[in-house]
Amino acid sequence: MVLHEQRTPLRLEDRPAPEPGPGQVLLRVRACAVCRTDLHIVDGELPRPKLPVIPGHQIVATVEQGGRRFAAGERVGVPWLGWTDGTCRFCRTGRENLCDQARFTGYDLDGGYAEMALADERYCFPVPDSYDDLHAAPLLCAGLIGYRTLRFAGDAERIGLYGFGAAAHLIAQVAVHQGRRVFAFTRPGDAEGQRFARELGAVWAGGSDEKPPDELDAALIFAPVGALVPVALRATSKGGTVVAGGIHMSDIPSFPYEMLWGERSVRSVANLTRRDGEEFLLLAGQTKLRVEVQRFPLEEANAALQALRQGQVRGAAVLVP
Ligand SMILES: [Zn+2]
Ligand SMILES: [Zn+2]
């Protein structure tokens, strides 16, 4: 499923299998989860995808033609971070997520909305056996970048999650497992979403227009809505942090300095490092996360994107070739 021009639907095309270059593995895609970032790419909110591009960066695949690290037949996961230069000042200081030359799967490189794909094997992960292909796919971005977002909450005990979609439904479980208290914020009036959040261990769930019963130590924002930044800040106590976990957000409205005062901070999370991936997948293997998926055949990628655009996906949408 190929994007030729932003703000146009993906097109179904037949192409020959790609040829792996040095260091690359040829993959047979088993499942590819749909990320909100894919939607930002298709909708023109991210500025410079290679075009045409095959989107998709939450790939679970079996290796068809192996390399040094992974042999044919092994199962691997392919995340958003597809390549880094390894030499810039960010890479040299353990921050490859900020690499100046980074290439991203499904954006700079063709991704997983396909039957076959290529990946640099150094950026692939082994996938925990306790998840089948369908349920493993959302771990690769929703889980993984959600986990990086949670890390920036430090040792916060009371965590607010704004936007209870693919990332939040996984991270809520991780946070509960770590002994934190989770407060889930959905779209106002989304009673079913709030019930879902409570089912996954949230101590409180309500609309993003509601005030939680306790002040938050940290708030993680997964919805692409800048207006949630001052809302979350208002719910966050002194010394607390508001972390924006998405790659794109609408403009943040101005707010009085008083709301930031008291050593509150606001920060973003960009991409992932391979270390984040290894840590999170290890944890996902040890604590069986409940992954809620909505399955779409690959050729219905446009319908999956539309469902996500309209907020109609419970958990994560996953494409299956
Ligand atoms: Zn993503
Ligand atoms: Zn670099």
- Radius of gyration, Cα only, in angstroms? 19 Å
Topology, number of strands: 15
Mean pLDDT: 96
Bound molecules: zinc ion
In CATH, the topology of the largest domain is named Quinone Oxidoreductase, Chain A, domain 1
For the record, the CATH class of the largest domain is: Alpha Beta
Global structural class? alpha/beta
- N-to-C SSE string, H for helix and E for strand: EHEEEEEEHHEHEHEEHEEHEHE
Strand content: 15-25%
What share of the residues lie within helices? 10-25%
Instruction: Provide the domain count.
Output: 2
Relevant CATH superfamily of the largest domain: Medium-chain alcohol dehydrogenases, catalytic domain
Q: How does CATH name the architecture of the largest domain?
A: Alpha-Beta Complex
Biggest sheet descriptor:
7 strands, mixed
Give the overall silhouette.
Answer: globular
Distance between the termini: 10 Å
- Give the count of helical stretches: 8
What does this structure look like?
- The protein has 321 residues and is an alpha/beta fold.
- It folds into two domains: 24-140 and 272-320, Medium-chain alcohol dehydrogenases, catalytic domain (Quinone Oxidoreductase, Chain A, domain 1); 144-268, Rossmann fold, CATH 3.40.50.720.
- 22% of the residues lie in helices and 24% in strands.
- It has helices at residues 36-42, 133-136, 142-151, 166-177, 191-199, 228-235, 274-286, 301-309; strands at residues 24-33, 59-65, 75-78, 81-83, 103-104, 116-120, 125-126, 158-162, 181-186, 204-207, 216-221, 236-244, 265-268, 293-297, 316-320.
- The strands form three sheets. Strands 1, 2, 3, 6, 7, 14 and 15 form a seven-stranded mixed sheet that branches. It has a six-stranded parallel sheet with strand order 10-9-8-11-12-13, sandwiched between helices.
- Helix 3 packs across helix 4 (166-177) and helix 3 (142-151) crosses helix 7 (274-286).
- The longest helix is centred in the last third of the chain and has 13 residues, at 274-286.
- It is globular.
- It binds zinc ion (ZN) (2 copies).
- One zinc ion is lined by residues 35, 37, 57, 80, 141.
